[in-house]
User: What shape does this take?
Amino acid sequence: MMSSTNPLRTPTLDFIARLTVDVASPWELGESAHGQRRFIAITGGDVTGEGLNGRILAAGGDWQTIRPDGVAELYARYFLETDDGERLEVENTGFRHGPPAVMQRLRDGEAVPPEDYYFHTAPRFFTTSTRLEWLNRTLFLGSAARTKDNVVIDLFAVG
Assistant: This one.
């Protein structure tokens, strides 16, 4: 039996890659019972890092709900292709929120320092590559920022 005086191992975060996800302008779907619904198409991008390199394919998108409390619930699905030609499917969920004035500046396309708002994701990877099979069984955390034309995500494996 485990004692509460002997804590379990504290997880570590190991940097894997930076994803620069190029995005189109949002398609506003309107107000729903859960908040404002919108879709943002993913148009490409790059993946650079010691653990993963390649490009983001222009295939996928981010379905968002902006809740009445101002929190953006994010659900993105898209594909990556490594420099070796191996394809990965990404399913990425997360939250983005901050003070109303900061969030308005982001919506207006202004450059806002990432420390001024909360933006984190929990990516999941799916691949048939034997070389990259470890992605199928590892938890990841993304620390993200929104720019006018893309979303930048620093990807960390939880160890």
Q: What stands out?
A: The chain is about 5% helix and 55% strand.
